[in-house]
Amino acid sequence: MNKAPMALLSAKLACLTIATMASLATMEAKANWVGLRNRNGILQLKTQREFDYFALALQWPATYCRRSSHCCSSNACCRGSNAPTEFTIHGLWPDYNDGSWPACCTQKRFNEKEISTLLDALEKYWPSLSCSSPSTCHGEKHGTCSSPVTGDEYNYFLTTLNLYFKYNVTRVLYEAGYMPSNREKYPLGGIISAIQNAFHATPLVVCRNGALEELRLCFYKNFEPRDCVTEATQNDMGSSSSSCPSYISLPEFVSRGKFLSAVVT
Length: 265
Ligand code: 5GP
Prior knowledge:
glycoprotein, disordered N terminus, Ribonuclease Rh, Chain A, alpha+beta, Ribonuclease_T2_eukaryotic, 9 strands, disulfide bond, two-stranded antiparallel sheet, Ribonuclease T2-like
């Protein structure tokens, strides 16, 4: 064999090896090994690489508050006539396409002062609907993992609020005729279609006892809408909306009234 092409080939291979080593080193520098839970709760040891997409998780308070039996000052379910009656934010979650997700990516501590100008809006649109304190791992569980895209704490919360206002799920459902009711049941397919028609992407719907509890909208990292369900998550979950029957309710908020307000601890 001619030596010139051999020399060229080995030079190319050397370059490739150096490039691969360099990118592996970068990956190693960026990734840290952590225990991650998949949707079935199984703990897997994985490198925490950068996420693939965002899920904006929106809660339907009337359903969520039914199981929130305990009242405390931070539980918005107990705000009487000021309790939230439309979709509120559960979180902006960075997710992997395989159905798992990273959490607590940096050691940076959550600092309320950084978001002091957003607190009123957050109280209203991102309220806590229970008394249990969220697992924050000393920092912001999801915000720290979003930081390659959303930047600092302030921007993470502002980005989430802006997405919530831009993609108004409550308005889309009302305009399609899906009004809160404690008698009606609505076709799950109709609710999904209303969102698809409005935002050109398929949401994920989560139910509890036949009632809509959470609706997730998904976004590419440039915040363009995308489908929430990937092939991997579909296989994992059996179907895109396995927790919901084919007809679901969108309950009206039942105020906990004076009795429960009085026992606020
Ligand atoms: P739950 O058990 O209420 O569904 O979830 C508990 C917590 O796990 C959520 O508040 C959220 O922090 C996290 N979580 C649940 N599902 C997902 C998901 O699909 N993606 C991400 N990133 N976090 C999730």
